[in-house]
Amino acid sequence: MANDQQAWAGLGPQLAGRLAKLDIRRPQDLVLHLPLRYEDETRLTPIAAARAGAPVQVEGEVVSCEVTLRPRRQLVAQIRDASGTLTARWLNFYPSQQKQLAPGRRVRVFGEVRGGFFGNEMVHPRVHPIEAGEALPQALTPVYPTTAGLAQSALRKLIGRELQRPPMTELLPAPLPGGLQLPPFAEALRTLHQPPPDIDPYALEDRAHPAWQRIKFEELLVQQLSLRRAYNARRTRRAPILRDNGKLTGALLAQLPFRLTGAQARAVAQIGRDLATPHPMQRLLQGDVGSGKTIVAAMAMLQAAENGFQAVLMAPTEILAEQHWKKLAAWLEPLGVGIAWLSGSRRKKEREAELARLASGEVLLAVGTHALIEDPVALPRLGLAIVDEQHRFGVRQRLALREKGADALHPHMLMMSATPIPRTLAMSYYADLDVTVLDELPPGRTPILTKLVAESRRDQVIARVRDACLGGAQAYWVCPLIEESEALQLKTAVETFETLGAALPELKIGLVHGRMKSDEKSATMAAFSAGELHLLVATTVIEVGVDVPNASLMVIEHAERFGLAQLHQLRGRVGRGTAESACILIYAHPLSENGRARLKVIYEHSDGFAIAREDLRIRGPGEFVGARQSGVPLLRYADLEGDADLVEPARALAERLLREAPEVATQLMERWLGGREGLLRA
């Protein structure tokens, strides 16, 4: 290891900094930095036989090389072999390149041939000066992910040097679970970094080759190990024991105007059992839009209150937090249970009064936005922390909420999400969580008809809104998502509000957007809920938590700009009453391939889990779970959909190693993560 450190120390801070951008921080990280693709420099093509559009390598003598100034400054060289002549052209070049290409030099050039004005040419080919008769490489040439200022040649040299050291130890036991037949680790690495010329290039490119399978399996195994370790570490921590004595929870059930669905009753029982254990619960409650997660959360909060402990519910937006607070207050205040409401926009006096009641323990329950994790909030008897729409919060925010509890005891954590997680994703990214699924909707939810309408038919949509509202219904009109600028989004919302106002003078129309003052937003929402407004023009602030049973029509403009989860969430704002409901998705041409795929999925599916599976297929897992902020080690090589057959064996082996060979588990994690286990506690 001392030699390794010396070799690493010899790189210099600039090169070490560039490697760190690629997450290469130790010499052994170099061999785990695998190629994106390969180029075949093991063979030569005569210039006359080079076909346009194909990357080839030719060898010849430089006939001429000069800098021309028309049509722009460029370096142009003529290279000749026995079969013909080829033009090589560089639009950006260094003086050293001109020296490399002095007339009479023998060179190999690699690049894509294309037809030029004066015959075949290569633009920006790679040049390798050689001596006559020099041997060709014996392996395909790897092309690595790199960063500005770090050339492929430098990266290849560093990785090649590391591959000459004694090979990495084989750590996996034999036989592997599930009858997997995979090559040894060192052999797989050598095959991927230096593939022989007779290897199947397609199996390498699509990562189906056994060498790739071996690397992907070990990566999945390490991810399972790190998550199971986090899970096991949690079992050693102490949490308050919150038994369900049925006093408050029973009283709430008795006064509800509806009965719990079977799925809700199962969820309440599972969570209730977890809260009664001395270890911190870490459970994900996922259920489709409208499946009734709030009542499950209310029952859990009451179980904490019955035991004299505090429970808080944190939501990502003020509208959603306020909806939760109003709903919970309506259920709990008749039982004599007070509930505090904390948000950044509350008046200072009101806020200070709520903080004092929480700090003294007079109030046991609270609902709020990010304001809950700000410093002045003291929760001396925090027993349960609930995070709604948990993927909207970063790891640090979730940790900050947990750390509000008394030091000796860890609060129980319940995370809720209406973005269902496909099974393979839950097994992999959430292996440290227990998962509860609400897989049935409460009775009375009406199916929602989804329609796709081109922008050219906007007038027909406006007429449909007029008819619906004059017939006694209410409608939402959601403005497009504009990634580039919140100000631009605001402008669009205001313009849409004015346009619809002019087109529909007989309707009362309201506007809500993210830049409005909180009390203005609340007043508009309250007026819409009370039926005083026919139509609500909004940005995506209404995506979650808005519940107006009389609203039965939703129009989403530029639907192709929204993600699938967002479209499904927005659509779930209607169909909450008994009236037939519809969601109209207005789209603009031309549609990108992804945009078309998303609209097809939302049109064909109403089940959130089916939509989530399709979303995973279209987008890939990293973006889906917000993994960049989730603290979970991202998978660099494995693909959860494509490699789903490796997840189960990796999980089985992870449990076996932790039980029978914990020292091997530690070595594997050190190899891949190097102490970077991320914020797995969250």
UniProtKB/TrEMBL annotation:
Its EC number is 5.6.2.4. Residues 274-438 form the Helicase ATP-binding domain. CDD domains: DEXHc_RecG (cd17992), RecG_wedge_OBF (cd04488). It catalyses: Couples ATP hydrolysis with the unwinding of duplex DNA by translocating in the 3'-5' direction; ATP + H2O = ADP + phosphate + H(+). PROSITE patterns: HELICASE_ATP_BIND_1, HELICASE_CTER. Residues 471-622 form the Helicase C-terminal domain. Transmembrane segments: none annotated. Keywords: ATP-binding, DNA damage, DNA recombination, DNA repair, DNA-binding, Helicase, Hydrolase, Isomerase, Nucleotide-binding. One of its GO terms (molecular function) is ATP hydrolysis activity. It is an enzyme of class 5 (isomerase). Pfam families: DEAD, Helicase_C, RecG_dom3_C, RecG_wedge. GO terms for biological process: DNA recombination; DNA repair. Belongs to the helicase family. RecG subfamily. Plays a critical role in recombination and DNA repair. Helps process Holliday junction intermediates to mature products by catalyzing branch migration. Has replication fork regression activity, unwinds stalled or blocked replication forks to make a HJ that can be resolved. Has a DNA unwinding activity characteristic of a DNA helicase with 3'-5' polarity. This is ATP-dependent DNA helicase RecG. It comes from Aromatoleum tolulyticum.
